[in-house]
Amino acid sequence: MSITGALQIGVSGLQANSNRVENISSNIANASTVGYRRTFSEFVTQNTGSSQAGVLTEVRASISANGNLQNTGRAADLAVEGGGFFIVSRTPNDPVESNYYLTRAGSFTPDQDGNLRNTAGYYLSGFPVDDAGTVGAIAGGDYGDLRTVNVSSYQMEGAPSTQVIMAGNVPAQETGLATPGDPFTSTLRYVNQLGGAEELTLSWQPSATGSEWTVSITDPAGTNYGTATVAFNDSGANAGSPASYVSTGLPIDPATGVVTLSINNGAIPQALEISLGAPNSFEGMTQFSGDYTPPSYSGDGTETGSLVRAEMTESGVLYGVFSNGARRAIFEVPLANVTNPDQLRSVAGNAYVATRGSGAVSMNAAMTNGTGAVVSGVLEGSNVDIAQELTDLIQTQRAYASNAKIITTSDEMLDETLRIKR
C-alpha cells in the first residue's frame, strides 16, 4: 500500500466518523422530539484497489423501534400503541397522493377551521362516517377517499318526539278531602318538528272523591288540551294502579291510558303520544300514600345539536359528543403499515414516505392486521437512548482521532521521502 493510499483511507475514515457524529448530534438534539426516530451510520468497506480498502457510511433509521408513551391529558394528542403510522397530508384534503406521508408524531390540535394538524404542520387524514354513524371497512393503500379530520363542521339534525312515557306517584291521602288541596304539576319536555325543545304542563288535581284525580295538559301559550278523570284502585292486587280513565276533553284512550295530542306547531300538526299507564298496571302513574313523586319522562326525539367535543377510541373511531347529549361516530382514522418500516424514506417533520425497500403502504383499521391501538391523551416520545448516544460519541471521537493519526503519520513519511530525494 502506498503512502498516498494510506492518506486516502485516513480521509475516508475521517469523513465516515464525521457523518456518524452528525447522526449522533441529531439524535441527542431530538431526544425530546415527539415521534422522532433514531438515525445511525453503518460503515461499509470501500475497495479502491487490490490492496486498498477505505470506508463509506450508510445512514439508517431505527423506525420500527417505538418510543415510550407519555401522558398529556389533551384529547387531541394521539399515539399508536403498537405497529402502524398515522396518515397525514401537507394541506387539508390534499388532492395530490404524493403529498401524503406516514408519521408517529400525533401532537394534533384543531386549526382555525377545525382541521387536526400536528406541530409539523401536517393534517391528520381519515374516512368520514355517514350521517347514520356507520363505520365502514378499511383496506388497501389508496389515499383518494381520505379526508382531513375536522372537529368543528358538524351539526346533528333534530328528530321530533312522537311518544313519551311517564312514571310517577300522586299521594293517595290528598284525595277524598272536603276541600281538596292545590294541584300537583310537572313539566314535560318534548322536541318539536324543527328540532327545538318545547314544554307541556301536566296538572294533577285531587278530587273530593277518594282515589280520584283530574289530569289536564296545557302549554306555555295557554292552550288547554283538555282534562280527564283518573280513578285509581284502592284495594286488591292492583291497589295503587290506574283503574279507569274518563275523558272530559282530553283525547285519551281508556284502554291504554295513552293521550294523543295534535300540536299545531307547523303546517302539519305534530302528533305526540303521552302514556299515563295502562289500567291495572304499575308502569306509568301510580297512587300510593306518601309524597308526591314528580313524573319522569322518557321517549324519543332529539334536539338539534352542535359538536361540543370529540373522543377517540382505541379502534381509531372518532366520536362526536353533541350539545343535545347525543354521541355518534364522525371519522374513522386508519393506520398504515409497510413490510419493512426501517427502509422508509424520511421527510421533514418526523414523517416518512414508502420506498421500494419498505414495500407498499397498506391501510387498515386500528387493532387489525398488525396495527396497534390509537390512544388519546398520549404522545409517543423519541426512541433515542441518551446514554447509548454518549457512549457512541466517545467511541466515534476515538476513531476519528485514530484516523487523524494515520494522516499525520503518512504526512511525516511523505516528508521523509522527499528529504531523501533532496
UniProtKB/TrEMBL annotation:
Keywords: Bacterial flagellum, Cell projection, Cilium, Flagellum. Residues 79-126 form the Flagellar hook protein FlgE/F/G-like D1 domain. Its main location: other. It is found in: Bacterial flagellum basal body. A flexible structure which links the flagellar filament to the drive apparatus in the basal body. Belongs to the flagella basal body rod proteins family. This is Flagellar hook protein FlgE.
